[in-house]
Design goal:
It is a single chain. The protein is 73% helix and 1% strand. It has 506 residues and is mainly alpha-helical. Strands 1-2 form a two-stranded antiparallel ribbon. Helix 5 packs antiparallel against helix 6 and helix 6 packs antiparallel against helix 7.
Length: 506
Amino acid sequence: MLIEERILTLFRRNCQHTLTYWSVFFSFGLSIAFLGPTILDLKYQTSSTLQEITWVFFSQQFCLLIGISFGGVFKKTLLSALTALFLSSFVISLVFAVIPFCYNVLLLAVAMAVSGLALGFIDTIANIQLVSIYQKDSAIFLQALHFFIGLGALLSPLIADPFLSEFSLSNNSTENATAIPHHFRMPVIHDNSAQSVPVEGKPRVQYAFWIMALINLPVPIAVFVLIYQEKLLSCCPSSTPRLLDKDELAMETKAQRDGTEKSETASEGGHGNLFSCCMNDNLRGLPVTFFVMHILGGIVLFMTEGIMGIYAGFVYTYAVSVPMSLHAKMAAYLNCVFWAAITAGRLVSIPLSYRFKPVYLLIINLAGVNIILLLLLIFNTNSVFLFVGTSFLGLFLSSIFPCLLAYTEDILNYQGCATAVLVATAQMGEMSMQVLVGSLIQAKGSFSFLVCGLLLSSVALLVFLILIVCNHFHKKLTGTSKKASMVEDPSAFPPPEKSEQKIPVT
């Protein structure tokens, strides 16, 4: 069998919990991917420039970082965790329903900030709950959990596509309007005064948001049903055993779980308390390379997650602009291709991780990202290669994050504190790069979109090579420290049996 019978038994015992957490992550993907293809419609709806609309990305990503950092406070009890998931998933549906009424960019930024906070709570709590259920067997279920992000992110552009507007230049754009053929029908990104307007009638994108709100609505209902089944409601009797209490394996490992839940949640799920890292007494006496490697790893994640954020956010805007000049409907499929490639890459990386070391996968992925972005710059007028390059870029980017976490965990053997720092650093990269690149596209044109991506990928590859060299020195330092500790502790050495036997002889 492809999956062990023991794993299947665990899944059957915790089926309702697992499916609920997976559905919540579907909401995560649905909410995180819709901004890219709808950015021009939202820009027109709020009467703002592209530079102003990029702050909507920033508000969502910043509050997502806050939610990730503080989401662990809800893990103390199952009731608090499920209640937070219920409210967060319901808020996502509410935000989808409210977005069509946000005619000011500030209101839109506030709405996206609220959704970002909910997404951060979902990201942390769902990982924590799955790890607490499956413990050492949680890897495959966490991979499936993140697969549902890609599934939701893939569905979001498909829902929006039939309702996207086809844009042309407004009348107050004079200089650029005469220089561009009529059949192009795209916004001039670098024209600060021009406003993009739909070619036919009013935008209909609000229907896409309402449809996504309805599709997401069963998710909070599923969480509420789980709360009811767990007998956690005050109006329900608590005499019936809860679902998790009936799991024999969970009962057997309950004592061990109490001592290891916090560390395993941080290391396997990728989340811990961000601010507790500075208060860890185990960090004292560690070599400098230990901290340098975390900084270098954080820089790599900062760059690569930044590339993922700007590509998902602005590839649609790039595609409908000069020199690509794709039809708006065709350009919307680029987001689908990108997220489908990321989803497929995460599935493919599971068997590859068993056969190859993370360092080899990271070198191949980082080199692949550089090559693809360079080719996209060279063939910047080829629409076919734009789709091909987008798919390969998604494949290469998909496994960098988990591979780098696995690589640093193997060489540093930490207990999850550093993972929280790396996750937060990656989120900062996605948050800040979207604002920076959006401003550059507004000022310099859409060509700067790929130039920034290539620059970030080159820095990421260079920093990772430095990380490998630093790992070499770190092994030498830790090997010396181990020898020194053995000298200080005589019990670490085996008893000198031969010498004791020679003493009577002499």
